[in-house]
Amino acid sequence: MAHRSLTLLASSLVALEIFGATAIHAASATSPSPEIFAPGAISGPSGVDCLTFAPDGNTVYFDQQARWNGFIMEAHRVGNGWSTPRIASFSGQWQDHDPAMAPDGSFLVYTSNRAAVAGGPALRGGQLWRVDRHGSGWGEPQRLPDAVNVGTSVYSPSVAANGDVYYQRRDEATHEFHLYRTAWRDGRYQAPQRLALGDPAAHELDPAVAPDQSFIVFDANYAGKDKPDRLYIAFRDGAGWGTPIDLGDAVNRYEPWGSHLGPDARTLYFTSNYTAKVSYPRTGAQARADLARMRAWDNGNDHIWKMSLAPWLDAPRSREAAASPHHSTGTSHDAT
Q1: CB 184, CB 162: distance < 8 Å
Q2: Which residues touch 132 (CB under 8 Å, ≥6 apart)?
Q3: Which end of the chain has fewer CB atoms surrounding its CB within 10 Å, N or C?
Q4: Who contacts 190 (Cβ-Cβ below 8 Å, separation ≥6)?
Q5: What is the spatial distance between Cα 31 and Cα 13, in angstroms, rounded to a whole number?
Q6: What pLDDT does residue 65 have?
Q7: Binning pLDDT at 50, 70 and 90, where does residue 333 land?
Q8: Per-residue three-class SS string for the chain
């Protein structure tokens, strides 16, 4: 996706020894192995990313992207599989991406290059829009307020159960992306607040917040400018966030990004262009299996992967952090 390329170009130099004081590796957690999601159906021959579920788990929305061409797609569960994806009814006129469903399914927030005013030109970048559910269909998309859409590098929303929206925004002075939250109160989005997570000089991307805001998963370049971003989880700690925990090499070897939570709030869905390793020489049967997999999904494009967060969510330290009434790593956001 276009914003991913911009993000990589905007990386800052963050030394590993500095990061060592602000984040830890999840050495005590046994990382489960990620699995490809819906191979050949959704994770298919074309690249897809950033998948979000309706609350019942039977409908998914995701990006179908090819450089500057893209849509938000919709598919429905059919038996043990998925229907042929089609362009979502609210998408297609503009380059739309990064869909994020509200936990109750009442609305969806996404990024678009849609003109900020009717009749205007397409944006060079993206801003956040909201579309509300009306019965079996969708209403007219509404742009989030100017306080949220600062500039045209506003991406990757995630929606909490109370309507708060988390997202990434580029700092125009440093060109780094950071995570923000805009609270939903009295029918209005409030002034955004930057999240205090790890090293403040690093960038953070692609938030996936729990419905109750008890934890957040995101990717960041805490390990250094010249290394791939890694996934982290941070738990609510009083009015702030605890120390980010690295999700480990078992998932980070996929160079994951674009995190979203499944309806159970315990399964992580992320994007990766990971390809399976092939051993040579191979038998005829192995060659045919490799070809079938390549034709289904294993082609170097971005696809959706999933893994359980149980090792981290069920760990004693996460429960203790969530229950902590006082300690905070920052004061730029709150739990209410």
Answers
A1: yes
A2: 106, 107, 138, 139, 142
A3: C
A4: 182, 183, 184
A5: 28
A6: 84
A7: very low
A8: CHHHHHHHHCCCCCCHHHHCCCCEECCCCCCCCCEECCECCCECCCCEEEEEECCCCCEEEEEEEECCEEEEEEEEEECCEECCCEECCCCCCCCEEEEEECCCCCEEEEEECCCCCCCCCCCCCEEEEEEEEECCEECCCEECCCCCCCCCEEEEEEECCCCCEEEEEECCCCCCEEEEEECEECCEECCCEECCCCCCCCCEEEEEECCCCCEEEEEECCCCCCCCCEEEEEEEECCEECCCEECCHHHHCCCCEEEEECCCCCEEEEEECCCCCCCCCCCHHHHHHHHHHHHHCCCCCCEEEEEECHHHHCCHHHHHHHHCCCCCCCCCCCCC
C-beta separation of 10 from 170 below 8 A: yes
Backbone angles phi, psi at 289, to 5 degrees: -65, -40
Rounded Cα–Cα distance for residues 98 and 91 (Å):
12
Q: Are 143 and 196 in contact (CB under 8 A)?
A: no
- Distant-in-sequence, close-in-space partners of 320: CB < 8 Å, separation ≥ 6: none
pLDDT for 84: 96
Nearest CA-CA partner of 43 in 273, 307, 306, 304: 304
Least confident of 56-60, 77-81, 222-226, 248-252: 222-226
Q: Which range, 58-62, 276-280, 330-334, is most confident? A: 58-62
pLDDT value for 232: 98
Cα–Cα distance for residue pair 314/322, rounded to 1 Å: 12
In single-letter form, the type of residue at position 152 comes to: T
| Predicted pLDDT at 236 | 96
* Token pair belonging to 295: 């034709």
